[in-house]
Each structure stands twice: as structure tokens, then as C-alpha cells.
Write a structure and sequence with these properties.
401 residues; alpha/beta; Aspartate Aminotransferase, domain 1; Aspartate Aminotransferase, domain 2; eight-stranded mixed β-sheet; 13 strands; 15% strand; globular
């Protein structure tokens, strides 16, 4: 067996199952799951109809490159969304089966397993980044999110000896779990580092369409603003899962540096990750429609307006820049660690939240997720409100003296 598999940690939700082992909440209260970031608004009917109208695609093997129609649709969407020239559909865009598998596969494409390189990751982070680094034969290096910097990563603290060995850097904006959005100056810093040391930037932007004010700045958009035509060493990842409430569709794309896309296509041809023509047709319909996305955003915004004032009376939490998460500090008000809080909340209130320490690693003397919880406001409004009210009531009962 591949010995690198032994280096992988359990996924956060496996840790959560172990944390909850032996607990049996009162079933009459009804379980409310605010722990998993799975969109639970209904999938739009027109996407369902597009699937059923193109079932003949199931009788053919799809091409890894995807259809010209899908790539052209994605290019047009990128141009509209980020006010940039449309990327070349033939060389700068590649459909993927959502963003998760692509984030993993890119590392296997660009890392030299004999090179003993470094993959720089934000901390807290999406665990796929770590697994991709380890199984690609590299070492992850974690840069802690700083609450004093709106949870930005301070890359000035990374030693030159680390940058010299870095082959790939993952960034997530809007971030999971903090919701922080990178600024143009932060992008400029990353691009300067990439130019100096030659590493590739993987920009995870799967939460880009869940925002409350101005649309978040994207990696390609930042590159164009800074005169980086051709997007050197930059690949962005996007998905319909959050934008269109279709996580089961497994539809996304990568876009950016044509040279990297060319090698990524070669890898994926062997990897067997071609998107069904049926899903491609539904994806074209989804990327071409913005009305359902605006309605989706409005629904999230209403939930935040209702939930945040209640939660702020109980724990330390602020409005995120974007995404559908609340990143709350719970120890100061309750005296409980994040794992203790999650376990007792489940036992007493039948509400699931995710301990922040499960989303981070001990790095530079701290785990930046410790004593925080991630709350995903993904359920329907009434269920989210009930969950928040139960959390607030739980805190009142356990408030630290």
C-alpha cells in the first residue's frame, strides 16, 4: 500500500462522530445540523429540467476537455463576473467534477514526488489541501490566519528557506471557515512571491457567489488589475455547488495559466475525470442564469441578519466578508473548549456545530481554530433560526462566571 496514506488525518466529520460517540440527545427536540457546509436550499427547477432534457448524453463517453459550449459559457461568465477579457475557452478553461477533486488533482499534477517540496496552506483550511500535499510527496507548511488582520495570512512571517522550497500555495477567498476575502494588496504580495520563487498559486473560490455587499475580488480579476496578462502560475477553482445549490451535480471548472491547464488536461485524461454530457448541459444552463444566484444570496443575507444579533449576545462573533459560515469564539463566554462546547451542545440541544480545532493544525505554537466553532447557515431559515436560538440558550445556561 502507498505508505503516504498513513500520514493522512481523519476528516473533520469522522472526528466529530467520535466526539459524539455514546451521546443520545432527546430525539423529540429534532436534530439541527449546522456543522456541515452542504447547501440545502432547493436546486433550481430549470437545472433539473436541463438534466432530464439531455439524458441522451448518458449513452456516450464524455471528453475530458468538455464541450466547447460549456467552456465558452464559463469564459463568458468569468468575463461578466470579474470584468475581465474572456479567457480562451480552448486553452485557459477546463471543466472539473466540482472543485474538491480538482484541488486535489492539481497537486498531483504539479508536484515532483521526488522533489521534497513544500505546499503552503492557510490555517485553518480545507483538509483537501493537506491531503493533496502529502500524497503528492510534499510537506504542508501552515500560515495561521490572524484575527487582528481580518483572518488574513501574514505571509511576511514565512521564512525565506520555506519559500525557496515551495512548489504550490493554496489560498481560499472567501475563506473557509472565516469568510475573509483577500484584498488586492494581499494578492499583489502573493504574486510577487510567486514571481520570486516560482511556485504555483491554487486559488479556491468556491464561495465567491455567497456575499452580502460588493462581489469578492477573484484571483484572475486581481491578476488583470495588476497587469498580469496570461495569469502566470495562477489557477482558480470554481463550482456550481454553493452558487446554484447543486452539490450533487459535481460541476466546476479551473481557469488560468494555459501552460498549467495543458499539463492538467494530460493528467486528467489518465485520471478519468470527464464530466457527463448530461451534467455539462445542465451546467451551461446554470452558468448562464444569474437570477437564481441573486435569490440565493438574498436568502443567505436574510438568515445572517436574523441570526447574527442573537448569536452576538451569546458568543464573540462578527459578520464575515462572504460565505455562509459564522466563525465564533466560544471559550471566553463559556469557559469551554471548542470540542467541549460542540459535544455538550449536541447532548443538551441536539444541535451540531464543527469544532474549529478540527479545521486547523497546531502550527507556530498554536492551533488557530482552538476555542472557535464553525456554524454553517445552510438550512432553511426557520431551522437556522431555531438552531441559533438553541445555541444562545445553551450559552446562557453554561456561561462562564
Amino acid at each position: 500500500m502507498n505508505p503516504l496514506l498513513d500520514r493522512l488525518q481523519s476528516y473533520p466529520f469522522e472526528k466529530l462522530r467520535k466526539l459524539f460517540s455514546g451521546i443520545h440527545p432527546d430525539p423529540e427536540s429534532g436534530h439541527i445540523n449546522l456543522g456541515i457546509g452542504e447547501p440545502r436550499h432547493p436546486a433550481p427547477n430549470f437545472i433539473r429540467e436541463a438534466l432530464t432534457d439531455h439524458l441522451d448524453g448518458l449513452s456516450r463517453y464524455p471528453q475530458t476537455l468538455g464541450s466547447a459550449a460549456l467552456r465558452e459559457t464559463i469564459a463568458s461568465w468569468l468575463a461578466r463576473r470579474y470584468a475581465i477579457p474572456a479567457p480562451d475557452p480552448a486553452t485557459q478553461i477546463l471543466p472539473t467534477l466540482g472543485s474538491r477533486e480538482a484541488l486535489f488533482a492539481l497537486a498531483q499534477t504539479v508536484l515532483d514526488p521526488a522533489g521534497h517540496g513544500i505546499v503552503v496552506c492557510p490555517n485553518p483550511f480545507y483538509q483537501i489541501y493537506e491531503g493533496a500535499a502529502l500524497l503528492g510527496g510534499a510537506e504542508p507548511y501552515f500560515v495561521n490566519a490572524d484575527p487582528a488582520l481580518n483572518f488574513a495570512c501574514d505571509y511576511n512571517r514565512v521564512p525565506e528557506t520555506v519559500w525557496a522550497k515551495t512548489k504550490l500555495l493554496y489560498t481560499c477567498s472567501p475563506a473557509n471557515p472565516t469568510g475573509a476575502v483577500m484584498t488586492l494588496q494581499q494578492w499583489k504580495k502573493l504574486f510577487e512571491l510567486s514571481d520570486r520563487y516560482g511556485f504555483i498559486i491554487a486559488s479556491d473560490e468556491c464561495y465567491s457567489e455567497i456575499y452580502f455587499d460588493e462581489p469578492p475580488l477573484g484571483g484572475l480579476e486581481a491578476a488583470r488589475k495588476l497587469g498580469r496578462d496570461g495569469y502566470p502560475r495562477l489557477i482558480m477553482f470554481s463550482s456550481l455547488s454553493k452558487r446554484s445549490n447543486v452539490p450533487g451535480l459535481r460541476s466546476g471548472f479551473v481557469a488560468g495559466d494555459a501552460g498549467i491547464i495543458r499539463k492538467f488536461l494530460l493528467y486528467r485524461t489518465y485520471h478519468g475525470t470527464a464530466m457527463s454530457e448530461t451534467v455539462q448541459a445542465a451546467s451551461v444552463a446554470a452558468w448562464n442564469d444569474e437570477e437564481h444566484v441573486r435569490e440565493n444570496r438574498a436568502k443567505y443575507a436574510a438568515k445572517f441578519r436574523e441570526a447574527l444579533p442573537i448569536l452576538q449576545q451569546a458568543v464573540n462573533v462578527t459578520m464575515p466578508d462572504a460565505s455562509f459560515y459564522l466563525w465564533a469564539e466560544v471559550h471566553e463566554k463559556t469557559g469551554l473548549s471548542d470540542t467541549e462546547f460542540a459535544r455538550l451542545l449536541y447532548e443538551r440541544e441536539n444541535v451540531t456545530v464543527l469544532p474549529g480545532s478540527y479545521l486547523a493544525r497546531e502550527a507556530h505554537g498554536e492551533n488557530p481554530g482552538r476555542n472557535r466553532i464553525r456554524i454553517a447557515l445552510v438550512a432553511e431559515p426557520a431551522e437556522c433560526l431555531e438552531g441559533i436560538l438553541r445555541i444562545a440558550g445553551f450559552v446562557r445556561q453554561t456561561r462562564h462566571p
